């Protein structure tokens, strides 16, 4: 049984069976990872009284291992879980223990991989700068190691994969920088297929920004749009749900799924009965512009009270009209831009597109 199968049991509330299945995972680090994730699922479902027993099971595996690799990674995973459970002091203690244990590892390849995994856990606590510093350290350990070129490349690819997984675990806005670094590593090492996958993930973080939780992005990458929409409705409320639906529609459009039209129309209908704040109106207008629902986007521009953002939205809509060949509409929208410099530049851009 895989860790995903075990976590699926936990998500369904079958915690006893999930915990009983953990020993079937051969790798003790994966056992600790599974237990910490089960604990977090329990906490999410309001079963706080059982959480600490599961954390203790994870601690037992880490503390009783004779391998520094298992101890350091186990402590890091527990530290990240404790942070999410609200125990910041405990989190810092375990992460410090993880780094101390890793410092005794002599093999630079093993140490580099361990430090990178600790960095991944540190990122889960929100300390992104600290995580980046540790990733730099891990990269340097591998780069300076006296090993053959092929082995060094393989190890650097492993670091890139851990950085990519870090992005997978974070919300869109914080995931981006990790994806950029991972892409840069894969691109420079000519791991083209991996680079293309990370590039797609990076694009997704830019598309699904307001509701870009890891589990929602994962569902979208797998093409499970209805499940992603269900998650959005479960995790968010009010206008955020509708903004999320529009972001999903935009992603569907990007991957050439024609059902994005139905989802966009449905969401617009729902928005008619929803109060939209000026800050949300700006985001909605931009998403609708990307979806090429330009006249609908103009409606939401009227709700934006920040003049700079309003002008930015009007410029995007005007240029989108011109790209569609609707130059009269484009010039009319551009004329509504309050900033005279931006308005002039937009009209020039429209003319350049028209000339061709």
Record field, number of beta strands: 0
The CATH class of the largest domain is identified as Mainly Alpha
* Fraction of residues in helix: over 70%
Shape: globular
The third-level CATH topology of the largest domain is Serine Threonine Protein Phosphatase 5, Tetratricopeptide repeat
In CATH, the homologous superfamily of the largest domain goes by the name Tetratricopeptide repeat domain
Mean pLDDT across all residues, rounded? Answer: 96
Q: If classified by CATH, what would the architecture of the largest domain be?
A: Alpha Horseshoe
Major sheet details: none
Q: Supply the helix-strand structural class.
A: mainly alpha
Portion in strands? under 5%
Task: State the domain count.
Answer: 2
Total number of helices = 20
Gyration radius, in Å: 24 Å
The stretches of 5 or more residues where confidence is low (pLDDT under 50) are none
Oligomer: single chain
Organism: Thermococcus kodakarensis (strain ATCC BAA-918 / JCM 12380 / KOD1) (Pyrococcus kodakaraensis (strain KOD1))
Protein name: TRP-repeat-containing protein
Give an account of the 3D structure.
With 356 residues, this protein is mostly helical. It folds into two domains: 3-216, Alpha Horseshoe (Serine Threonine Protein Phosphatase 5, Tetratricopeptide repeat), CATH 1.25.40.10; 276-355. It has helices at residues 3-11, 15-21, 28-44, 48-63, 68-84, 88-103, 108-124, 128-144, 149-168, 172-188, 192-207, 214-221, 225-235, 239-254, 260-271, 278-290, 294-301, 307-323, 327-334, 340-355. It is globular and about 75 Å long. The model has no long low-confidence stretch (mean pLDDT 96).
């Amino acid at each position: 049984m895989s860790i995903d199968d075990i976590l699926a049991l936990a998500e369904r509330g079958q915690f006893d069976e999930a915990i009983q299945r953990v020993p079937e995972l051969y790798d003790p680090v994966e056992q600790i990872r599974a237990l910490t994730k089960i604990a977090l699922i329990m906490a999410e479902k309001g079963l706080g009284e059982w959480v600490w027993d599961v954390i203790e099971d994870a601690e037992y595996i880490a503390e009783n291992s004779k391998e520094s690799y298992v101890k350091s990674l186990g402590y890091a995973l527990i530290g990240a879980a404790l942070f999410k459970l609200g125990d910041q002091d405990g989190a810092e203690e375990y992460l410090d223990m993880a780094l101390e244990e890793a410092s005794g590892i002599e093999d630079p390849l093993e140490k580099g991989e361990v430090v990178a995994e600790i960095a991944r856990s540190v990122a889960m606590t929100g300390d992104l700068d600290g995580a980046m510093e540790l990733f730099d350290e891990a990269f340097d350990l591998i780069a300076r190691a006296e090993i053959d070129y092929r082995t060094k490349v393989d190890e650097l690819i492993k670091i890139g994969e851990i950085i990519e997984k870090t992005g997978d675990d974070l919300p869109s806005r914080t995931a981006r920088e990790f994806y950029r670094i991972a892409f840069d590593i894969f691109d420079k090492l000519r791991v083209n297929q991996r680079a293309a996958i990370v590039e797609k993930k990076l694009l997704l973080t830019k598309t699904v920004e307001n509701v870009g939780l890891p589990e929602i992005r994962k569902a979208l990458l797998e093409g499970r749009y209805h499940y992603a929409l269900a998650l959005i409705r479960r995790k968010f409320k009010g206008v955020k749900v509708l903004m999320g639906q529009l972001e999903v529609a935009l992603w569907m459009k990007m991957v050439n799924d024609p059902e994005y039209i139905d989802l966009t129309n449905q969401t617009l209908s729902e928005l008619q009965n929803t109060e939209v704040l000026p800050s949300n109106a700006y985001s909605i207008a931009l998403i609708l512009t990307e979806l090429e629902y330009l006249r609908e986007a103009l409606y939401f521009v009227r709700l934006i009270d920040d003049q700079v953002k309003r002008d930015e939205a009007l410029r995007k809509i005007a240029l989108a009209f011109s790209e569609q060949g609707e130059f009269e509409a484009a010039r009319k929208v551009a004329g509504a831009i309050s900033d005279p410099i931006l308005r002039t530049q937009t009209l020039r851009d429209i003319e350049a597109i028209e000339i061709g």
